[in-house]
Amino acid sequence: MENLLREERSFPPSPEFAAQANAGPDLYERAAADREGFWAEQARELLTWSKDFTEVLDFSGAPVARWFGDGRLNAAYNAVDRHVEAGHGDRVAIHFEGEPGDTRTVTYADLKEQVSRAANALAALGVRTGDRVAIYLPMIPEAVIAMLACARIGAPHSVVFGGFSAEALHSRINDAEARVVITADGGYRRGKPSALKPAVDEALAKGTPVEHVLVVERTGQDVPWTEGRDVRGADALAAASPEHTPVDVEAEHPLFILYTSGTTGKPKGILHTTGGYLAQCAFTHKHVFDLKPETDVYWCTADIGWVTGHSYVTYGPLVNGATQVLYEGTPDTPGKDRWWELVEKYKVSILYTAPTAIRTCMKWGAEYPGKHDLSSLRVLGSVGEPINPEAWMWYRRTIGADRTPVVDTWWQTETGAIMISPLPGVTAAKPGSAQVPLPGISADVLDERGEPVPNGGGGYLVLTDPWPAMLRGIWGDPQRFADTYWSRFPGMYFAGDGAKKDDDGDIWLLGRVDDVMNVSGHRLSTTEIESALVSHPMVAEAAVVGAKDDTTGQAVVAFVILRADALERADEAGEGEDVVAELRNHVAKEIGPIAKPRSILVVAELPKTRSGKIMRRLLRDIAEGREAGDVTTLADSTVMDQISKGMQR
Ligand code: WTA
């Protein structure tokens, strides 16, 4: 933290970069002079509306905003058809690279045909405007096609990350009441096919409203089949017409639901609508990455299961008519230079990835990027967690040849699109800081009492005015929406992040201030993992904390109290390690492998206050190898000694 404040390096854009950049300093001035007029201009310039809007923002139903409320449009038309109509049908939309090395080139004309067929296939399965469709797919072009096919008929999609378990899929399908699931037999990961369809079968066996499962063939592996319910993707597409008229929807029509972890055990279905979301995705993608659709090759390494994949793989780039790389697999298959091989092969000019990936590449060593010609790169982006200045510098130097601007972009599933970030042709970038709210965005850092902190001070990050891509609520739970985000500082959106303002007033993000962990840029809830642990018959009680980790940012560390009978059994058989392994696997099964604790410590007691609240702060001290801090508020102050002793055993 102190290091952060002493960071004095600054990297202004080169005059050449600034001269050719999409955005100049005037963008901030225009937005400051007339915020709503500015967003209206962007929405008209970047999107094609079937009916123009006359209203810009209506916040009379706060905290639910309406943007461009009386306008009408279709998201898939904006992402696909209009580029073909404008004569860019031959432009590559997606350079797909499968993990085994198979490739596919999808032009905008191809995309139009495939999305249209898929939309007709969904309609044939009974999906109508407004129905929800769950998508559980690997990173293959069909993932993007499925999302756009849903958007084309106005059926909100709910993409569930392919690494989530059947249990997690089941609860998401039921919460959104999805009628159809689109999945694949499997995908390639770490050099071998990894099945997906069995998890769908398991989820549906628990009872859901799903009527059909559309199964894309990717690996060709054998999958269980339920006649009448399951439909082969290839058959459905072949039978469908390649012509489909996109359904015009209101600007506020739901585009998608995406589940994210909150501070309680139950994931929140974050709801995004069409017009404002697309306008801000397109605006940010154009200006933060300085996109030139005719010449750039853009690559965002995020999975479509996360919001970054929604806004900066599917919607932002395609609405802007960009050419992008889509890669199915892991960065070290078959070698640790796979990403850099792809940058060279496709001449990637804009790369958008996460600090955890950058730190992993740092650990592997500069020799891997060093094997390849990376001179096509001209903008580098980072997202998902605070980027430490060392990683930022390595990214710029080793990947960007000390030449490319690096943009550290802060945003959330809830914000829909980038909110705080340097502009590459304008901002003198500081390693480790997201710095300034984008034009048209208002943010501040407040103290406990809700007063803005002066420069040099720290507190809570808030967004002070509504923005076009803001969430419109939590699916089915308006009260939780109001309570979660709008009650801490009335009238303002509280993001859950801590932040500092430096002496120049630039914003430095400091991580979550609530019970949400950030592991490799993935949001995980401590409560959700605790619930998973307690659902195991051996566990009496559990407490989970996020401990600092050099590579993943944070790591999950769990403290569990076993039930007496389980403890006896474990002691007698000397099976302590088996118990830990079993519990780790149990969490993977309940939530997904990403939620597996790095370590699980079996303890006799947990540190609690007199009112029974677990003091996670003290557990974090232990997990990070420190002496436990102030224990005076504990009901039983000897508990921490017992836990520390247990650690040394
Ligand atoms: C964190 C991902 C610091 C933050 C787009 C936020 C960041 C959470 C940054 C949202 C950044 C994201 N610097 N922290 N540049 N970007 N975060 O919903 O804690 O998966 O609240 O959205 O990630 O995670 P989410």
From TrEMBL:
User: What cofactor does this one take?
Assistant: Mg(2+)
Location of the Acetyl-coenzyme A synthetase N-terminal domain? 26-79
UniProt-annotated binding residues for ATP:
G384, E385, P386, D408, T409, W410, W411, Q412, T413, D497, R512, R523
User: Post-translational modification, briefly?
Assistant: Acetylated. Deacetylation by the SIR2-homolog deacetylase activates the enzyme.
GO molecular function annotations of the record? acetate-CoA ligase activity; AMP binding; ATP binding; metal ion binding
Bias kind Basic and acidic residues: ranges? 1-10
Q: Which domain of life is it from?
A: Bacteria
Any one Pfam family match given in the protein's UniProt record, by short name: AMP-binding_C
> What is the enzyme's main class?
ligase
PROSITE patterns from the xrefs?
AMP_BINDING (PS00455)
Q: Where is this region: Disordered?
A: 1-22
Cite the entry's keywords alphabetically. Answer: Acetylation, ATP-binding, Ligase, Magnesium, Metal-binding, Nucleotide-binding
Answer yes or no on keyword Magnesium: yes
**Function text:** Catalyzes the conversion of acetate into acetyl-CoA (AcCoA), an essential intermediate at the junction of anabolic and catabolic pathways. AcsA undergoes a two-step reaction. In the first half reaction, AcsA combines acetate with ATP to form acetyl-adenylate (AcAMP) intermediate. In the second half reaction, it can then transfer the acetyl group from AcAMP to the sulfhydryl group of CoA, forming the product AcCoA.
Q: What is this protein called?
A: Acetyl-coenzyme A synthetase
Q: What is the lineage of its organism?
A: Bacteria, Bacillati, Actinomycetota, Actinomycetes, Micrococcales
Q: Which gene underlies this protein? A: acs
